[in-house]
Write a structure and sequence with these properties.
37% of the residues lie in helices and 24% in strands. It is built from 8 helices and 11 strands. Strands 2-1-3-4-5-11 form a 6-stranded parallel β-sheet, with helices on both faces. The longest helix has 16 residues. The protein is elongated. The chain starts with a strand and ends in a 5-residue tail after the last helix.
Length: 245
């Protein structure tokens, strides 16, 4: 594939490293400093764009790719307020967009497991969920996009959960509220854990990323899958053959 890399931070660098190792070409490297130097004609040199930037830049970047007519894979998080509007633009204009809060295959398996466990827990009201996520201190959004996906899935799958709330520590809330503890420390790549706690025991699902390689590999897998398709998709389509729920 000929790839336009939009965003040249740590995730962009990880994507580039794996892309080159896999025989792909990076035809454009675009960031906030040089974005003005590139035209639609430049962008059209790519088969697909992979975008990891900032919440305040992502919508404009995606619509730029739509205007250029190239598929785009985006892993930027923290812009959910604009998601519906951007999605409708792609659907109406026949574009190709794939977004994910996390491209790791392991995390997406965790999403599946969490949905299943939450559904089972409808029959066991003595258990209450608690979500903890840890990331590096430079991560801007809090909770993380991955944590919000987990929270949304839990609320969709569990009858009693109606909302979530950021907390400090294992603070007890109303039974219909999911507590989320968001920690920012050091250079942690990403840790997510869902625990279901009862008065007598605890059941946990936990994922820990050792490097950014899993995110980069998943983004490249998504780009390869998307490049000949039209529509708006998620990693559920890529990995499991059904839309993300």
């Amino acid at each position: 594939m000929n790839i336009a890399l939009i965003g040249t931070g740590k995730m962009g660098m990880a994507v580039e490293e794996q892309a080159l190792a896999g025989g792909h070409q990076i035809v454009l490297r675009i960031n906030h400093l040089n974005r003005h130097e590139f035209s639609l004609a430049d962008l059209k040199k790519a088969d697909v764009a992979i975008e990891f930037t900032r919440p305040d830049a992502v919508a404009a970047n995606l619509l730029w790719c739509l205007e250029a007519g190239i598929p785009v894979v985006s892993g930027t998080t923290g812009w959910h307020e604009q998601w519906e509007e951007v999605r409708e633009h792609f659907r109406k204009e026949g574009g190709s967009l794939l977004t994910a809060t996390n491209f790791s295959v392991g995390v997406n398996i965790m999403f599946q497991l969490s949905r299943e466990l939450a559904a089972w827990m409808n029959k066991h009201p003595e258990y209450h969920p608690f979500l903890e996520e840890v990331h590096h201190t430079r991560k801007l959004d809090k909770p993380s996009g991955t944590a919000l996906t987990l929270a949304h899935d839990l609320m969709q799958s569990h009858e009693q959960l109606k909302s979530w709330a950021l907390v400090q520590g294992n603070l007890e809330l109303q039974h219909d509220v999911l507590p989320i503890h968001s920690i920012r420390e050091g250079d942690v790549i990403g840790q997510h854990e869902i625990s279901w706690v009862s008065p007598i025991d605890k059941i946990s699902i936990r994922h820990e990323a050792f490097s950014r390689d899993g995110f980069a590999a998943g983004a490249l897998l998504a780009a390869s899958w998307l490049k000949d398709k039209k529509g708006v998709f998620g990693m559920g389509d890529v990995l499991f053959g059904h839309p993300d729920r």
